[in-house]
UniProtKB/TrEMBL annotation:
Alphabetical list of InterPro entries matching this protein: Ricin_B-like_lectins
Protein's recorded name: Uncharacterized protein
Highest taxon, organism lineage: Eukaryota
Amino acid sequence: MTHRVLDVEMGSTEPGANVLLWEPKKAGYDNQLWTYEDEVFVNKHSNLVLYLPSVGDQVIRGTSLIQAKPINQTDGVDDDDPMERYKRSWGVDPQGRIFSWLDDNFCIAPGEGVSVVVEDCFFGDVDDMVWRFVPAQPVR
């Protein structure tokens, strides 16, 4: 089990920035804080959401996750397109795995190095796909 957290690369506030696994910071850690509401993860620092890039409804194993604008702020993307909604929507199963509503066979997992990807929920090291949700505490 890793004790790393989801981190937006370089604290970026831009759509398209990579989401990584990183050691928890002692200060300046808002890019490591996420809220989960209505099946969407929102980064505290950027106010952008966790996003699964895909072509239509086709999920590719090993795809790296990024942050994107919330569905109601997509500027030109059809807000009524269900695929765009599902690319931003995540569920959490009873074991603590975070799965994509675009294709619920894919869960968030560590990738190579510090990348965060989607992998098949039922193959490989499934223990690496279990996440623990912890209320944010001030770090001293």
